[in-house]
Amino acid sequence: MNSKRVVITGLGALSALGNDVKTNWQNAKEGKSGAGPITYFNTEKFKTRFACEIKGFDPTVKLDRNEIKRSDLYTQYALYTAAEAMEDSGLEVSRLSSPYDAGVIWATSQGGMNTIEHEMKEFIGNDLTPRFNPFFIPKFLGNMASGVISMKYGFMGVNYTPVSACAASNSAIMDAFNYIKWGKAKVIVTGGSEASITEVSIGGFNALKALSNRNDNPTIASRPFDVEREGFVMGEGAGALILEEYEHAKKRGAKIYAEIVGAAMTADAYHLTATHPQGEGAYHCMKFALEEAGISMQDVDYLNAHATSTPTGDLSEVKAIVRHLEGDYSKLHISGTKSMTGHLLGAAGAIEAVLSVKSINDGVVPPTINTENLDPSIPQGVQIVTQTAIQKKVRVALSNTFGFGGHNASVIFKEFV
């Protein structure tokens, strides 16, 4: 089978840094934190009382009344960013040769958690006639964002949702890449969304002792690679990418942001929530992606690390990266953008893919903010970009995501030439 080239022709983004790609990228370059006190519910009884909430989200900007009424917030985020990406791509759905040439592969980790919480409270709290909203089931299902996007645009090709915890979006991007590469699709909307700032999510992750409790100063709480890191900051939002077969994009005169040249997934097979301490699965995940791209880590200019700001996770990833570099730290620059966006769980890979592509387009490596004192376990010479962005020609960017259950997923983006 002859492999097809896969390019990116549209982007959409929604996070605590902004409600579109332009604003997200500008704030990421400027090293702004999206963290602040939680406003969605009363946090008085919670150990963690802050997160990276989206500000001023108005779904009516891109969604109609029925779409909003029938959708959980995570699906609204998906529709919103997919609409931005579709508009950005200039793709005219009516001009597709067949609706079966286009599909959707959309990720999430928690799905409609807001709907589940709301409906359970309504059911338990109603002493007269306990009942559920008729839209309860379709609103909370994890696959529904993917389904609704396909309905909106009439895409009748591949359509499903990978669920691999915090690696889910990269899993979705990889699958979309493969479907197009294998000639099974011409266009796929991919990415992921998460509306994870809920009582259940914050309480559950608090119980795991995974979240930062730096309530006195939320904006400095996420500090990947720093010796004082003590947990991640919950984020929310979505990222969308339009992946397209190169000849199809070329024929319609589409602008091309970048090309995807490699991707891989592995499993740690080690622990429910902890990463392998030596980064064994992460190392091989990057190895297989690099081999598919036909390059080595020394050819990568920028690595957007998973880097959640947890004591063990950050170090295991660094160990895996250092193993690839074999002592040559001269070219690769690393940053953890979760320090600004928070951790979007199943949508993390999607927003980080958008930032990685923009890094290639603009020649800028965004910073890891709040990282003041690198963990002494990190070898000297490893170039982690801290505090402020740097100007640099970025031809190749690699994005890592790792999830509970031992899921690893890496995607490699390359300057289109």
Order of secondary-structure elements: EHEEHHEHHHEHEHEHEHEHEHHEEEE
Q: Which range best describes the helical content: under 10%, 10-25%, 25-40%, 40-55%, 55-70% or over 70%?
A: 25-40%
How would a crystallographer describe the biggest sheet? 10 strands, mixed
CATH-assigned homologous superfamily of the largest domain? Thiolase/Chalcone synthase
Structural class: alpha/beta
Q: Which shape, going by the Cα principal axes?
A: globular
What is the domain total for the residues? 2
Arithmetic mean pLDDT: 96
Question: How would you describe what is shown here?
Answer:
The chain has two domains: 6-251, Peroxisomal Thiolase, Chain A, domain 1; 263-414, 3-Layer(aba) Sandwich (Peroxisomal Thiolase, Chain A, domain 1). It contains 13 helices and 14 strands. Helices cover 33% and strands 18% of the residues. The strands form three sheets. The chain has a ten-stranded mixed beta sheet with strand order 5-4-6-7-1-8-14-13-9-10, sandwiched between helices.
Which features characterize this protein?
alpha/beta, 2 domains, 33% helix, two-stranded antiparallel sheet, Peroxisomal Thiolase, Chain A, domain 1, 14 strands, ten-stranded mixed β-sheet, 417 residues, globular
